[in-house]
Design brief:
Blueprint: H1 3-15, E1 28-34, E2 41-49, E3 52-61, H2 64-77, H3 82-96, H4 103-106, H5 119-138
Antiparallel strand pairs: 1-2, 2-3
């Protein structure tokens, strides 16, 4: 993906994040993630029905990378079951680590392909996914 397209996707998802705003509903599981080295702090809610991620909502204060990664993560995960979510998580972590991964599974999340070269930004890109790891432990 060319650098301009990457920048546009990140910027769009930062300025207009998908499913930003928490809901008051006890059917949602809430997870908190934060980055100790900066201000990034995200609350992420998951609604699970019959083993499938039906909805994800988030809110918080975070940098452009964390906020856009959360938005793109949500787009990638809604409608996925536990096994599909694990595959997305595994491929995303491999991509950030500079290992071989399947880009077709990640969709727009590939915009963070080069983020792994910047260790401080890698943490921003993985922050929302920490909530997914916690969720998968509970599913």
């Amino acid at each position: 993906m060319d650098p301009n397209s990457r920048r546009d996707i990140m910027l769009e998802n930062y300025q207009h994040p998908f499913h930003r705003g928490l809901v008051e509903d006890e059917d949602y599981l809430l997870f908190n993630t934060n980055n100790e080295s900066c201000i990034d702090h995200l609350d992420i809610q998951y609604q699970i029905e019959d083993g499938t991620i039906k909805d994800i909502r988030f809110d918080g204060e975070a940098c452009a990378v964390s906020m856009s990664a959360a938005s793109l993560m949500i787009k990638a995960l809604i409608g996925k079951n536990k096994d599909e979510a694990k595959v997305i998580l595994e491929n995303y972590k491999k991509m950030l680590a500079g290992e071989d991964y399947d880009a077709t599974i990640l969709g727009e999340l590939v915009v963070y392909e080069d983020i792994g070269k910047q260790p401080s930004r890698r943490r921003c890109a993985i922050l929302a996914f920490e909530s997914l790891e916690k969720l998968l432990e509970k599913m």
